[in-house]
């Protein structure tokens, strides 16, 4: 999932708020996603590590899993709840746009719909 600049910054702030030390963030990542924080995001201060964690999750397609894992470890955090809602809304709108594009591209009947969706998803 490609994040907008605003969503990327919001997710960064939410993760820092929910996991105020690298140790807490590292535990969440290990317990929920079986990932090593240093291997995924490198070294640095918390802000830098969280930035690279998000960039890695974006490039490998596991932003949604990251947010769900963070929410599971800190379900009462209002910042995480808000960013999860924003991501859900953003994903919904992108899927609706893809559906509309599929309808526009689908001139060969229902059998070509599947191919159009795959094509659109590969560019999304």
For this entry, give a set of tags.
single chain, disordered C terminus, elongated, 77% helix, mainly alpha, 124 residues
Structure, described:
The chain is mainly α. It has one domain (5-123). Helix content is 77%, strand content 0%. The protein has 7 helices and no strands. The chain has helices at residues 5-18, 22-33, 37-41, 46-60, 63-73, 78-105, 113-123. Helix 1 (5-18) packs antiparallel against helix 6 and helix 6 (78-105) crosses helix 7 (113-123). The longest helix is centred in the last third of the chain and has 28 residues, at 78-105. The radius of gyration is 17 Å and the shape is elongated. Residues 115-124 have low confidence and may be disordered.
Secondary-structure blueprint:
Layout: H1 5-18, H2 22-33, H3 37-41, H4 46-60, H5 63-73, H6 78-105, H7 113-123
Helix pairs in contact: 1-4, 1-6, 2-5, 5-6, 6-7
Helix-strand topology string: HHHHHHH
Shape field = elongated
Number of strands: 0
Distance between the termini: 8 Å
Rounded to the nearest angstrom, the radius of gyration is: 17 Å
Low-confidence stretches: 115-124
Mean pLDDT: 84
Helical residue percent band: over 70%
How many structural domains are formed by the residues? 1
- Number of helices, where a helix is a run of at least 4 consecutive DSSP H or I residues: 7
The biggest beta sheet reads: none
Which percent range describes the beta-strand content?
under 5%
Computed structural class: mainly alpha
